[in-house]
Design goal:
The chain is an alpha+beta fold. The protein has four helices and eight strands; from the N terminus they run ββββββαββααα. The strands form two sheets. It has a four-stranded antiparallel sheet. A hairpin with a 5-residue loop joins strand 4 and strand 5. The longest helix has 70 residues.
């Protein structure tokens, strides 16, 4: 069984590719992921020492890789070829091999269902977030209009305060004016009386 080494970040197997090898992790850690319809990555699981990945192709080589595997750390793996795998199960009855194929197919189908469900949930969340953002925008616009109206009212109140109400004349000035008017009336009356007396004297 040969060994291969991969640097951190290196993709070891890629979703959709054909393969004839499986891998057992000797040292390091990898992540198994798939691409969603929107292009985002969905991390299915993480694997470490003594765990295997890519085994489906050993059971049914007509199936494409159902997920990608990428090294999280520097990784050393033991490579299992399909030929060596078949040699080890030659003694296994044919029905068992058929069952293994069915299991491999079901695993692949379950992955497809998971991706589909994830995409649907992701779309629902995006729609809901968009709806919330739209509602918040409407509320913000309404609050903005209210603030503008309040600002206009405050400006009008300020102008009224600056102009002030019409001031009534002081009480003292009013009395002086009345006294002056009275004195003028008395003076005219006296002049009238004087004029009448002079007229009588002439007669």
């Amino acid at each position: 069984m040969r060994k291969s080494a991969y640097k951190a970040g290196k993709t070891i197997i890629r979703e959709g590719d054909k393969g004839t090898e499986a891998y057992i992790i000797v040292d390091g850690q990898v992540e198994v992921f798939r691409k969603a319809k929107d292009g985002s990555e969905i991390i299915l699981t993480k694997l470490g020492n003594n765990q295997m990945f890519g085994e489906i192709c050993l059971i049914d080589d007509t199936m494409s890789r159902c997920a990608s595997v990428r090294a999280i750390t520097d990784v050393v793996v033991a490579v299992i070829t399909k030929e060596s795998f078949i040699e080890k199960i030659q003694s296994t009855p044919t029905p068992v091999r058929s069952i293994l194929k069915i299991m491999a197919k079901r695993i692949a189908e379950s992955n497809e269902m998971f991706i589909s469900l994830y995409s649907q949930i992701n779309a629902m969340v995006r729609d809901k977030v968009g709806e919330i953002l739209d509602n918040n925008k409407i509320l913000i616009d309404q609050l903005k209009e209210k603030d503008e109206l309040i600002a206009e009212l405050q400006e009008e109140i300020k102008k009224l305060q600056e102009s002030g109400p019409t001031k009534a004349p002081p009480v003292k000035d009013t009395r002086q004016k009345l006294d002056k008017d009275r004195s003028m009336k008395l003076s005219l009356k006296d002049l009238d009386n004087i004029a009448k007396e002079q007229q009588k004297k002439k007669e």
